[in-house]
User: What shape does this take?
Amino acid sequence: MTRLEPLKLRPSFRGKIWGSTDLAPFFGKAGSPIGEAWYTHEQNTVVEGPLTGRTIGSLLDEFGCRLMGAGRRTDGGSGKGAYFPILTKLLFPAQKLSVQVHPDDTYAFEHENGPGKTEMWYVLSARPGACIALGLVEDLPPDALARAARSGEIEKCLRWVPISAGQTVFVPPGVLHTLGAGVVICEIQQNSDITYRLYDFGRVDRSGRQRPLNIDRAVQVADVRLRPLPTAAERIAGGGCQVEHLARCRYFAGERLSWDAGFEYLPDSERVHILIVIEGSGSLNRTLFEPGDCFLIPAEAKPFNVAGRGARVIRAFVP
Assistant: This one.
């Protein structure tokens, strides 16, 4: 029987109108604007070891709870086949994203036949003066919010917040938000791509067409009372390395791990771990890593050695 060991994943790159061609220090130059690098979608593949070329979806089908942990569902509650519960990615905005909002599970399952989207952002880099929009300056009733979106006045209504590297933003469903240019973030979220655009700054694609908006649905799910703020990492107990809490909810937990000497990593038999390297280099279970690499740590994996100095990793898992 194949024993599951740490699995190095190949990122998949998504072109976006707001993306960048400079993906440093994680990847090289891109020939066209890249907005996102996805790691843990069902179609992402393993790049090293005996399971090279296998998709996460196929591993879910074959190994189930051996990968995810005892009693963990692998279909997202829909019964429609393989579903990995956490989507992790890096974002590279060279322009503002659309003003957008995500639905919760109740609305999404009723209207989109899938789960909603709760997310968190960990800021990897931010140039001086970089900002993000989180909510509105003041509450607007639904009809006024829709009018502001259609007229473009929504730009004046957004609550822009300065952001810096090392901060975390937790974004529950219903929060109106957008990222500004000049930041690179690591995003941990429910594995859902449901986004309702309220406003897109009048942009057009290469064909001269504007991207579609979803104003009616955005207004239905928006909670204009929500105004989250960035938070700092909080030190918590760790074994073998420094562990800091970033965010936690029913869908995922995000932590930052740091180390300057080798140690033994202890997998969790109850849940799979995701490790995204954001700084430093070294080896994990004899596999080399550098910034931009991502590993799945199966629930049934045995303890393994980690080496390297000055390494920093984002860890995600389902609580």
Observations:
- The longest strand covers residues 304-317.
- The helical segments are 56-63, 65-68, 105-111, 142-151, 154-157, 215-221.
- Residues 142-151 form the longest helix (10 residues).
- The CA atoms of residues 169 and 230 lie 5 Å apart.
